[in-house]
Amino acid sequence: MKSYxxxxxxxxQMTNVSYRGVLTATAPTKSLTYGFKRSVGRNSQGRITMxxxxxxxxxxxxxxxxxxNKKEIPAKIKSVEYDPNRSAFIGLAVYKDGEKRYVVLPxxxxxxxxxxxxxxxxxxxxxxxxxxxxxxxxxxxxxxIKPRGGAKIGRSAGIFxxxxxxxxxxxxxxMPSTEIRKINEExxxxxxxxSNEEHHLENYGKxxxxxxxxxxxxVRGTAMNPVDHPYGGGEGRQGRGTKRPKTxxxxxxxxxxxxxxxxxxxxxxxxxRKTGKNK
Length: 279
Prior knowledge:
Pfam families: Ribosomal_L2_C, Ribosomal_L2_N. This is Large ribosomal subunit protein uL2. By secondary structure, the chain is mainly beta. It has 3 domains: 1-17 and 202-213, no CATH class; 18-199, CATH 2.40.50.140; 219-279, Ribosomal protein L2, domain 3. Helices cover 4% and strands 23% of the residues. The chain contains 2 helices and 17 strands. The chain has helices spanning 9-13, 207-212, and strands spanning 2-3, 15-16, 33-35, 60-62, 75-81, 90-95, 100-104, 114-115, 128-130, 139-141, 143-144, 151-153, 161-167, 170-174, 180-184, 188-191, 269-271. The protein has a 7-stranded antiparallel beta sheet with strand order 9-16-10-13-14-15-17, with no helix packed on it. Strand 14 (170-174) and strand 15 form a beta hairpin.
């Protein structure tokens, strides 16, 4: 992590990931980028469905490959790059037939390293195999939920899942949330853990950096009036005053299970995630 001399109040606490020894390119590959408009918390009708989002620096979208449908063709990492749309580092993979694609990089992989998508690939970082060919105890990322559906699980910085068991056509995966879930053994996953593992240690230091990221200010409920929030009102600072924590619309946010009892994927959950003190 990179820290700064306390030349101001915001600089005193600010920390940043040190990119100098990791990134090898400053500009993205033009053929793999295009402009886009961020939804910033709005739905298709323009209504706010998630608060505290908006503004931020204009971004260029990097077309990252999560399908990995080029099999049995080795690829070499030509550059390690920053992606403003995700927390992990991405790498420009150049396949032996000349095609270029962006991929999410695993921890420890650097410029010049190679990987391959193959059923018989060795168990080294970045290589991609079907879950049935991955031994128990291996760390994996970029995991498919459905065969040929593209990677959906384990894509954030520093994240990894673990293969726990293989039986009856399914592979048990221990998620980063501690949940253990059954996934079809025909699904593919990449070996290793996602890069930029220090991302969660980053301290913005000032409100302005949050605005650059597109994060708008959050007002505490206890600072509001009673008409605006269940926690509002009172003389001076007051306690919550309600039995359980709530949103400003009165919906309970702690101590109540929100997963539907008839959700289609309940049959695939072997062990629920641990929450609260048990975690």
